[in-house]
Specification:
Layout lengths: L12 H12 L3 H15 L7 H5 L5 H9 L7 E11 L5 E12 L3 E7 L6 E6 L3 E3 L7 H9 L7 H7 L4 E15 L3 E20 L10 E10 L5 E9 L13 E14 L2 E11 L2 E13 L12
Antiparallel strand pairs: 1-2, 1-12, 2-3, 3-4, 4-5, 6-7, 7-8, 8-9, 9-10, 10-11, 11-12
């Protein structure tokens, strides 16, 4: 795998000399000359007029949002399908059905049913994770419930809309894929190029009594050919009772891959979701149906 990032532009000695002249103080005409010369060296431009701004190339997130068909009018979703869990060696440990309700941006209910067992129902009410029938949760269980919110590509659009700081760290090229339990390793016939969009994603608000702050630096990979969100990557603390940005904290790479795209009421939606932890697949979701804007009852997202 190779990674290619944009390199910052370094100013040469000529630019440094110009700034020295400017600092020394120039007459007004002299200052305008300096500004023109600085613009020539650094590539700076004058502010865009409204007409020019309208024709500017959209940034990575904007382009992805357009191709996904995502809009603020999408308020909720109901997804149905199956889920398969794997151990670190790729052996299936559990299979079942999945029913997931989302009310954007931060409300969630997940119902997992396996065999004849009663459904395991968990959720996030916008502030607290919960599990039906349990009064307390371990840090690991609380983390895993909140993590479901990041297992969807629209999280990119929701996070930016919430005002998260946004940056584009450059392109990433991947020429192979790690082995999956169902397909093994794969060398890609054509290396895939991705644009990257990075933001700080905060799931909460949380307080010290509710566990560590769930704040992650999430990088989204946007396929340059399709403009679809192919994956999300971030690091989880090895100790779930600690914050990811705690000094000296060991981190585990987490990745979610999105595939099998289908049109759902004008929105592109992934019908396959693969969750990786530490370079190994730990579960795979295969959806059979997705419904948007069904206005699920508010009490579905509260602990029973």
């Amino acid at each position: 795998m190779t990674i290619r990032n944009k390199k910052p532009i370094a100013l040469g000695a000529g630019a440094a000399l110009i700034f020295a002249f400017a600092a020394a103080g120039l007459s007004q005409p002299g200052r305008h000359s300096v500004k023109r010369l600085v613009a020539a060296i650094t590539g700076a431009t004058t502010p865009q007029t409204p007409a020019a701004a309208a024709t500017a190339t959209p940034d990575v997130e904007q382009r992805a949002r357009t191709h996904h068909g995502w809009a603020a009018t999408v308020l909720d979703s109901i997804s149905r399908g199956s889920i398969t869990f794997y151990d670190r060696t790729g052996v299936v440990t559990r299979q079942g059905t999945l029913l997931m309700y989302r009310k954007f941006p931060n409300m969630l209910r997940v119902e997992l049913t396996s065999g004849q067992s009663a459904a395991n129902i968990t959720g996030f009410d916008g502030t607290n994770p919960w599990t039906a029938g349990q009064t307390t949760l371990t840090s690991a269980v609380a983390r895993d419930i909140r993590q479901w919110l990041r297992c969807s590509p629209e999280r990119l659009f929701l996070t930016r809309a919430a005002g998260a700081v946004y940056r584009e760290p450059g392109r990433r090229v991947e020429d192979h894929r790690p082995p999956t339990p169902w397909q093994g390793a794969a060398d890609l016939a054509q290396p895939r190029e991705y644009d990257q969009a990075e933001m700080i994603d905060l799931v909460g608000p949380l307080t010290p009594t509710q566990g560590p702050v769930d704040r992650r630096r999430v990088t989204y990979l946007i396929d340059r050919q399709t403009s679809l969100v192919a994956a999300a990557r971030w690091f989880e603390p090895a100790n779930p009772s600690q914050a990811a940005d705690a000094p000296g904290m060991g981190l585990v790479e987490t990745r979610v891959d999105f595939g099998l795209w289908r049109d759902v009421a004008g929105v592109q939606w992934p019908y396959e979701i693969t969750h990786w932890s530490g370079g190994q697949v730990d579960f795979r979701v295969q959806l059979t149906s997705v419904q948007l804007n069904q206005n699920p009852a508010a009490n579905l997202f509260q602990k029973p």
